[in-house]
């Protein structure tokens, strides 16, 4: 079956990708030696995984978010060498639509068929699981993540697809942004289950022992829950007034077309105590939208929660940016109106106070893993540098000091696009290596850059080259050799 699907995929990929002019993965390959320019740090030993949309061979309304997922990996041997692999991710819904004359499952801009919409009334799956957003490592296992669907397990050593999993019936649906709390030695994850009613399911995945579902909460009308915050004692979900009735999805509307911004409604803030997950505190604040959290921590004896995030004034800014590309391509981020912001939650007073940390377009934040859920003085984000990228995408990396307001910029030129950065702790002493997969459109190839995150050089210490252009991924993780 997979061989037939791969043949069909190769036959249709060229025409589909040409019609929507999105960067597409040329070929898959197993781990192979990669060319290295410069010198890799001797203490860099482990694997960087990245996941993102990579093929547009299903449907006629291709959008960047609707591309089939491909996981790329660069493995560092700690002796100055590196190898890399890229593999498309298969799911039952992807394979079914690749084999069908007409796609049946819906997506971000692709409506579902009437048959799938009717099946949704009885709990059947309506949305295609593209597994194209993130990857989650847990207890030596690796999972590719999408939204509102089951995770897809991969072999971390080979990227072989092992299939969708419910973790022995525990998981109904997972979304794409888990968060680790180092003090608890656990990862926290959530899923939004869509049916006749919408519910939020929250999970704990400890470093050892079995996963468990902490709580399930109703989410009437909520249209998008992409990310959340995790601190030592709390999980926080900030729900924009972006509503979507499941009936509209079942009526064959694409996801983006079914969303409605309710400017007259506040944003809702759900504060879930990890040790008492059924005692949910509900706050309200001004309407706003966000895709990604930076970090969160507690202060004042746990009476205040400090939450840093990339904030948009409303969803219309994101919707306009999505519509601005006639080819459905990556967002022209400057039109999105993003800024680096901080929300301070006063829990006894049930009040939310806002601060602007940096009023400039930015996205895809990264903080040191040891500081996740704890006070953190800095974060790296993708930004726009001058000269601007030709496609409007991010072409710079910026380190923001979250307390002093200073920044350090690395610009990569108009013909390069950056992805989400990653910070890897140095094995000796303090500090981190900064890793970022860069699409070099002039060279027609992608390279993984390695910088000293605590240094001052704009040029990377090393570049690790793929033999092709890997489409800019969304998110990923670092798995150290000892992990």
By helix and strand content, what is the structural category?
A: mainly beta
Largest sheet: 6 strands, antiparallel
CATH class: Mainly Beta
Number of domains: 1
Taking all Cα atoms into account, the compactness measure Rg is 21 Å
Helix fraction? 10-25%
Number of strands: 33
Please report the distance between the alpha carbons of the first and last residues: 34 Å
Quote the CATH topology: Methylamine Dehydrogenase, Chain H
- Tell me which CATH architecture applies here: 7 Propeller
Uncertain stretches of 5 or more adjacent residues = 1-20
Describe this structure in words.
The chain has helices spanning 2-20, 92-99, 114-120, 246-250, 255-258, 315-323; strands at residues 29-33, 35-38, 45-55, 68-77, 82-88, 134-138, 141-145, 152-154, 161-164, 179-181, 186-194, 198-206, 212-218, 229-230, 234-239, 242-243, 260-261, 267-273, 281-285, 289-299, 304-312, 339-346, 351-358, 362-366, 378-383, 396-401, 407-411, 416-418, 422-425, 432-440, 445-452, 462-465, 475-480. The protein is built from six helices and 33 strands. It has 483 residues and is mostly beta strands. The strands form eight sheets. Strands 2, 28, 29, 30, 31 and 32 form a six-stranded antiparallel sheet that branches. It has a five-stranded antiparallel sheet with strand order 1-5-4-3-33, with no helix packed on it. A four-stranded antiparallel sheet has the order 6-7-8-9, with no helix packed on it. It has one domain (2-480): Methylamine Dehydrogenase, Chain H, CATH 2.130.10.
